[in-house]
Design brief:
The protein is 64% helix and 0% strand. The chain is mostly helical. Helix 1 (2-8) packs parallel to helix 4, helix 4 (36-52) runs antiparallel to helix 5 and helix 7 (76-86) runs antiparallel to helix 12. The model has no long low-confidence stretch (mean pLDDT 83).
Length: 193
């Protein structure tokens, strides 16, 4: 999917996307685990691909799964809502952004007498994950992506800046990074996801 996105964005050497993904130390490690980060990366990539291929409603339906995978991913839903508005999508397109949370909460309440949505209002972290400052994740990002991939990400952002969905791709990544930072600062990691 990442290769297809790179081709759609007209990145000259799109084939490099795959090796660049795998030379990121954290991605290589996480791709061999059952943690939620890999699944979330797939949802982000697939939703972006659907968007770039003008399948806006499919994109909204896929990105709706993100907050079920990792709770902090809920921050991308308003960006997708802006994209829907930008594309003049009918009202039911906005409902697609909430279908997964609605179904999940409905089934959990009916069968477990519990509302999972409360995690957004009453997060509880695990002490072993720790907490940090507003800048704690900057070196962590550079280390987990690797300095070469970080440099390529900056160069890639510059290259796609004129694409009609560049704002969505870049603001989504930035907002998610800020959400991760906020969750870590608050010590709320392990609140779910």
């Amino acid at each position: 999917v990442s290769y297809a996105i790179a081709r759609r964005l007209r990145i000259r050497h799109a084939w490099l996307v795959i090796p660049l993904i795998y030379i990121q130390p954290l991605f290589t490690h996480l791709s061999l685990t059952t943690l939620t980060e890999t699944i979330l990366a797939f949802y982000f990539a697939l939703a972006t691909w659907f968007l770039l291929t003008d399948r806006t409603l499919a994109s909204a339906a896929i990105i709706a799964l993100a907050p079920l995978t990792r709770h902090e991913a809920i921050v991308v839903l308003p960006i997708w809502a802006l994209m829907l508005w930008h594309n003049r999508v009918q009202w039911y397109g906005y409902l697609l952004l909430s279908w997964a949370l609605f179904v999940h909460n409905t089934f959990a309440f009916v069968y477990l007498d519990y509302w999972p949505i409360y995690i957004f209002f009453e997060p509880n972290g695990a002490a072993h994950y720790g907490h940090g400052t507003a800048f704690t994740f900057v070196p962590k990002l550079i280390c987990s992506a690797g300095p070469i991939v970080t440099a390529f990400a900056v160069l890639g952002a510059w290259q796609i800046r004129k694409h009609r969905y560049a704002w969505l791709i870049m603001s989504g990544a930035a907002l998610y990074f800020l959400a991760e930072t906020a969750v870590y600062m608050r010590g709320s990691y392990s609140s779910g996801g």
